[in-house]
Amino acid sequence: MAENLVSSWSDGKTLPESYVFPPETRPGNHVVPTSKTVPVIDLGEAKGLNRKETIQKIIQASQELGFFQVINHGVPKTVVDDARDTFKEFFELPLEEKSKLYSLDLSKKAIVYTSNVDFDKEEIHNWRDSLRLLCTPLEECIQSWPEKPTRCRKVVGEYVREVGKLGSGILELICEGLGLEPGYFANKLSEQQVMAVHHYPPCPDPSLTMGTRKHSDPGLITLLLQGNVPGLQVLKDGKWIGVEAIPHAFVINIGTQLQIISNGKLRSVEHRVVTSKNEARFSAALFIEPTRDSIVEPAKALVNANNPQLYKGVRFEHFIQMFRSTYVGKMEDVM
Ligand code: OGA
Ligand code: NI
C-alpha cells in the first residue's frame, strides 16, 4: 500500500518500532567520518597521455575498496542537475500521484515502493521510498515511466543515456586494466540497465535506523549519484567509512558479477546508507547488469596455475534468485 511510503506518514518526530534496527546493525551514535579514503579519479586524464595511469588507479581502487568516485566524466552538469531536480520533484508529488505506481512487481517498467520490494516479508524496514525504472530498451521503457513531473521522461531518459555511456566507458577502462580482449563486457554482460532513485526523508533518530541496510550490488557495476547530502558508507577492513558527497561526481562500485568475471581480483564490497535528521537525501543508482540468460563466469584469461578458478559459472537469472532467497526477510537484505 502506498500509505506505507515513509514520506506519506512520517511526522518527523516518531520512529516506529518496525524501523528500529538491532543494536549490532544500527549506526548508533558512533560518528563515521567522511573520508578521503575513497579515491576521486579524474576521467579527463584517461583521454590523454595519462590513460594507463588512470586505468591503474581504477583497478587499484576496485581491488582494494571496490569503490571510487569519478569527476570530469563527460556527463554534462545540466543533465545531472535536471535529473536531480526531477527526482526531487517526483518525490514531492502528492501521495495520490505516487500511489499510481506503487507496486512490488519487479517485472513492471516503473514502480514506486518503500524500504524494499520485500516490504511485506521483512521484519525491519529501511527509512526510504524508492522509484525503480527499467531502462532497457530505453525508448520502450520510457513510455511506462512516470508522466509527472512533465519533463520526467525526457530528462531522466537523457540522464540514463549519458550515465549509461559513462558506464560503458568505465567498463572499457576496466577491461583494458584487467588485460581482457577489447569489448569483453560490451555485449550481453552489460546489456541490462535498471535505475533505483531513492528518497531518504529526514529521520527522527538516525542512530536507530538505516536508510539502506548493508548489502552488496549483485550486477556488474553501479553508477551512483549521491548528490549533495552524504550518507553512503563503505565497509573497509571491518570498519565503516563515509563517502564524501561531491556535487556532480559519480560514485562507482564493483558489482558481484564483476567480482566473478575478474576471478576475485576486483571486489564487490558491502555498503549501506545512514539517514539524516535535518535533510532529505535523494540518490540515484544506475545498475548495469548482464541479461538474465547470460552465463557469468571467470574470464579464461584470468585463470591460470597461480590463479585457480574461484567461482563456478552461473546463469545471472539463477544468481539473482539465490541472492534474493538468501536475503529475503533477513537483516542483510538486497538493494
Ligand atoms: C543501492 C545503494 C546507495 C544510496 O541502491 O544499491 O547502495 O546512496 N544506494 O542510495
Ligand atoms: Ni548498493
Automatic annotation (TrEMBL):
Domain of life: Eukaryota
Iron keyword on record: yes
Domain spans labelled Fe2OG dioxygenase: 190-290
Molecular function per GO: metal ion binding
Record Pfam families: 2OG-FeII_Oxy (PF03171), DIOX_N (PF14226)
Keywords: Iron, Metal-binding, Oxidoreductase
SUPFAM superfamilies with a match to the protein in the record: Clavaminate synthase-like (SSF51197)
InterPro entries for the chain: DIOX_N, IPNS-like_FE2OG_OXY, IPNS-like_sf, Oxoglu/Fe-dep_dioxygenase_dom, Plant_2OG-oxidoreductases
The UniProt record lists the keyword Iron: yes
Family (UniProt): Belongs to the iron/ascorbate-dependent oxidoreductase family.
Name of this chain's protein: Hyoscyamine 6-dioxygenase
The organism of origin for this protein: Spinacia oleracea
Gene (name only): LOC110778965
